[in-house]
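User
New here, explain this?
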Amino acid sequence: MSEKELNRNQLLIIEDPSFLDICHYGMCYVGILTGPYYKYKTYHDMLHCKDSHSIPTMEPMLLRMKLLVPFGVLFLLLSQYLSIDYVTSDEFYTNGYWYRTLYMIPMFLWFRMRMYSAWLLSECVCMTATLGAYPVASKPRRGQGPTVYLSHPDKNDSESILEYNYETVHNISGYGCDFTTTFRDAMRWWNMSVQWWLKTFVYVRCPIRGYGTTVTMAVSAFWHGIHPGYYLSFMTVPLMLLAEDLMKAAFRTDNNRAFYDWANWFFRMRAFEYLSMGFLLLGWSATLRYWQSTFFIGHFFTFLFIGIGYAYRPRRSAYVAGERATNAKQD
């Protein structure tokens, strides 16, 4: 079968794995504790790759390790001064309102540095085993793997075929998480392989139209564990996405794009900080106690923006015309 005979969305299918193969895949030491998520086909390709000796490992690993140094150092430094256990103590709640509310900012920074470090290390582990290494010409995507099937090497394209990358197991972009302007886009840069799985197998397949995001967030919470804090945070996400979409439709224009995007970044970072406390505190009572001490500031602004967005939302015809004009300019 040649490349031309394959639809761009089709992938080569491997034989059905045996029960023992599934056990080996599920218990593979690569990524078993920290991820990234990878398909059985990715695992199968690692084991049966005939060119593993020619796949680079040290150079791409060192490139990722360079990012690990500042993330790891900042995590260790913040660990000397911050503790989530302090938030659960009665002493913490004797502090003033703004101290309690602003405490989530350095806590989220500490949490990000911890997760960035863990995911970068997990990517490096994948590289040492050549897991997720595919030719650049196969155009691999995070979580999915190759999107172009290379049936046989092309002599005229041998250099691009011999060039490999680890995009399939690329799981985190610190820059994307920290500096992208929208809540929705920031989520895509966080735990990217799992984001692909959630979109492909949950969001797209949700039978109830209009509830795909809510169902996806519920599954994501279950993916993380059974602690109530996960569910409290994840089930708030659809409301925050709605608030962001409504405000964007109502107020973002070509003239105020720069200012609006900066303001949107500011509020979406505060939203992430607010939600992160559910991930850190985990318990139902502990999470609600902290949020209550901030007067549920994250929920307050979320509902405020939803109300303002609905009140000032443009008429559908005008909004659609504006979107088409914007897309035409981008094209």
User: Anything to note?
Assistant: Residues 104-128 form the longest helix (25 residues).
